[in-house]
Amino acid sequence: MRLVIMGPPGAGKGTQAAMIAEKYFVPHVSTGDIFRKNLKEGTPLGLKAKEYMNKGLLVPDEIVVEIVRDRLVEGDCKKGFLLDGFPRTVAQASALDEVLQKMDMKLDHVLNIDVRKETLIERAVGRRVCTVCGATYHVKYNCPSRVGICDVCDGKLIQREDDREETVVKRIEVYLEQTQPLIKYYSDKGLLADIDGQKEIEEVWEQITGVLGRDNK
Ligand code: ADP
Ligand code: AMP
Q: Is the Cβ–Cβ distance between 25 and 79 less than 8 Å?
């Protein structure tokens, strides 16, 4: 299964993507996670991406496209993949089309998670992430069993630097301007599945398995 999950920042993409990856046995390829890993390791890519991420801006297309191109040729993507947070511009989407065409592959579904702006801000500002394994929590909607500590690996939970309210507002603006046009792009190709992301995590998951199939093949 070859999938894209899209939606504004804080919509719940990463939360659902982790569940999809586990049920349907596809690697979860998150460009945001790749940048954060590089940033943590202090690589030149991480330092370059930081300039954009902390301002709520998109990393330039050529940088992101190269990363995804390199990732999709890795062996584990042969059986399928789930792209989370990519593409984010029409230029990235057409670059992805070219990459897939060369590999003789096609996308099966684009899941579009729709959530109201006030909810996005509340979700992103309340998000906490594990500094060790990257697991995601929410202070109100998806609490860890011990405050500030990851259930999976006991790592310390922190707020992402780009989850401060003013940066979240900027990221939503950037989404509306640069990423929202992809809804028409994929709808015209007959690939789009609209998901009501306003609902609780389990209800959103029900809608997604309704699209992808209850069987995990
Ligand atoms: P994205 O990857 O789209 O930015 P996340 O999956 O990280 O979003 O979710 C943002 C925050 O909202 C996280 O703290 C997550 O635990 C929480 N969250 C995700 N889905 C829901 C939901 N359906 N209802 C309430 N909170 C949610
Ligand atoms: P995310 O984890 O998906 O919210 O991404 C965090 C940040 O990483 C974004 O706000 C961007 O600065 C950067 N980023 C992630 N994916 C992309 C992409 N496809 N294109 C450009 N920038 C990206």
A: yes
Residue 182 domain-assigned (yes or no): yes
Q: Is residue 197 part of a domain?
A: yes
**Total structural domains in the chain?**
1
Q: pTM for the whole thing?
A: 0.97
- Atom 12 (ligand 2) nearest CA: 53
45-60 confidence digits (pLDDT tens): 999 999 999 999 999 9
88 Cβ inside 6 Å of ligand 2: yes
| Protein residue closest via CA to atom 1 of ligand 2 | 32
24 lines ligand 2 (CB under 6 A): no
Q: Report pLDDT for 217.
A: 61
Range of the domain at 40: 2-116+172-207
